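INFO  loader      accepted 1 record
INFO  loader      residues=135
INFO  predictor   begin
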Amino acid sequence: MSQWALSRWVGRIILIVACLGAVAACSPFADDIDAVKEAETAGLRNEDFVQRLAGDGNEIEWSARRWEQYPKNSGIIFVEAAMEKQTRDGKKRKIVVQYTYNRVSERTSLHDVLVDGQSQGILGGALQMLLLRLE
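INFO  predictor   done
INFO  writer      dumping C-alpha cells
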C-alpha cells in the first residue's frame, strides 16, 4: 500500500471517529435536561440547587429517559441528577435528585430524592440534604 493510500485511509478513519463522537454527544434528551436545569424549584434554578448540594469538586451526572410509569405518553420525561458526596466522617453517599418534565406543558416537578438508593420523599429529602451539608 502506498503512503498516499495509507494517509487517505487514516484520514477516513479519523473522520468516521469524529462523526461518531458528534452523534453520540447528541442525546435525544439533551433539550429536556437543559429545560430541567433552567427551571426553578422554590425560587432556585434546579442546576444551581444540585450544584450547591454536590458541593465544590463533586461531579454531577445528568441523565434522562422516558418515564416507565407512563409508557404511552412520550411527552413525560424522567430526569436525574446523580452525584457522590463524602461526609465529614469519610462515608460516601450517593445522592440522586429526580425530576419529571412534561414536554407539552413545559412543566418541571421535583419528583424525589434518593440517598444511597432510599427514597427520602420531597420533605425528607430536603432535610436529609441539609444534614449532609452540615456533616
